[in-house]
């Protein structure tokens, strides 16, 4: 066991003993933040991205999923629903190394309601692999902190994201650890670490609500370790079992009831941070809507930053129970920001200096930093899930509803989705696409690049050839339909505009679309950005302060 964990947790226990002090929760939060970061340093490099791989054709042949390396020999714990025994897989480490692995055993059955979803892969050949230490799940208790590190399909990044939570139930009726470490497709197979930095669970499935996340207990992998090393599908219990051993560090795990309602006492920063997030109302296609904004002081006036696509027009600012008319003085369609002017100064809000008090670049050591999103009616606490990156426009683009491939040197439709825009104008498999809005389409990249320029509701003219007859059809694009998965059903849902941003980072706050537009701070009160979109069940996207300020300068004269 890494000494720093024991050192941190000795301090952690001492901190808990001192909870009588007014600011003890803040001290506990700082110690917890430090511990999360240490867990990340230990577990991050062993958390791997996996996908099926055809070694002959050298192509991916399955959806991606997650896993964690737990032995120097290259054993990877993952889920049964990600693998088939005896198949080859590409394994990518966060440091960029890619290796080939072979799937071994999988247990894939249900017995009296208990779900077995265990899988194992072993890296081919030797190597100096990062290894995560296996813990014991039997020693978990309710409210023991947990850290999840895994790879979401929707983000499609080569680096894992961090999620922080707690144990809700050590072992539920389905044989899972119930945790609040949020997960979604692609996270399956990824590890949940305890606060000693040990793997105690493997992500398996989620429920409708964001606090419903279910992990396979690591003790089950220990019990069937020998059986899982055999490339075989088990539809019932293996005859061979192993002793799971004893957790000699069980007493170092600490149950923290405060994690059920995490928060910070911000002291002298309380008023400033709370007043920086204000309520906005608007009219969106005839419907009254509410959203969140960030209040900024500019000499004797206030500016308000909001999420443009959430507000429409006829916007008003609501501050301390009073409503004030607001004038739109700028919109940044690239960043989905709207800038509002309030005639009367209604509060102090943030100053120009706040936009430059933090670094524009997070490093790996910063993952796990606690973040606070003030809201008009309270606040939400999260952790930094990623470093800074760019999120290309995809899910926010208009939906065409047909896929294409190169055939005979031509861009050829190979699938038309039922009830899609392409289907509505009777496009067919085999039709050639030769142009979009007057621009020639010679390669698949031309087609994709042109489509991604357009938003839902836009109409495009598509030039086609069918049986040597040319024709042009007008297609009105719609929104990309959600996948049929439980992860799509969480309350509040996703933002309509949730990608197509540069200089962003992500965190795991449960921010609703109508709560975007508000500021994000660290626990020291430094502005870290503006919430700009609920991307998915696990992820909210934040624009960096410098990106927002540069947009302000570009769209508002005189700053």
Automatic annotation (TrEMBL):
| Pfam families (UniProt xref) | PDZ_2 (PF13180), Trypsin_2 (PF13365)
Tell me the keywords, alphabetical order.
Hydrolase, Protease
Q: GO MF annotations for this entry? A: peptidase activity
Domain PDZ: from-to ranges: 388-444
**Family named by the database record:** Belongs to the peptidase S1C family.
The record's listing under PANTHER family reads: PEPTIDASE S12, PROTEASE DO-LIKE 5, CHLOROPLASTIC ISOFORM X1
Q: What is this protein called?
A: PDZ domain-containing protein
What is the protein's species of origin? Answer: bioreactor metagenome
